[in-house]
């Protein structure tokens, strides 16, 4: 369901959506060079954040990184901030998704 909602918001905003498995984050970022990277922090957890840190250290991605998470997981929120990701509680993420994609968070 999450992928369908992001796809619909991307289409409305006229933005191209490319999806990739979290285990290939660095490779996907190298191939696509997105302006906006959206991460499901609950699914990826600490491993995804470690991969993000590695990608950012190599200059990937060039754009904004936004991740959504369960509002009760403060440890994950702190880890996302440390990794260079703007964490948004799941409800807020879905409410602001159109603006986030349409303006790339600007």
**Radius of gyration over C-alpha positions, nearest whole angstrom:** 13 Å
SS element count, helices: 5
Number of DSSP strand runs: 3
Residue ranges: pLDDT <50 for 5 or more in a row?
Answer: none
Structural class: alpha/beta
CATH fold-level assignment: Rossmann fold
Distance between the termini: 26 Å
Order of H and E elements: HHEHEHEH
Describe this structure in words.
The chain is α/β, with parallel strands linked by helices and 106 residues long. It has a single domain, classed as Response regulator (Rossmann fold, 3-Layer(aba) Sandwich). It has five helices and three strands, in the order ααβαβαβα. Helix 4 links the parallel strand 2 and strand 3. Helix 1 runs parallel beside helix 5 and helix 3 packs parallel to helix 4. It is globular. The model has no long low-confidence stretch (mean pLDDT 89).
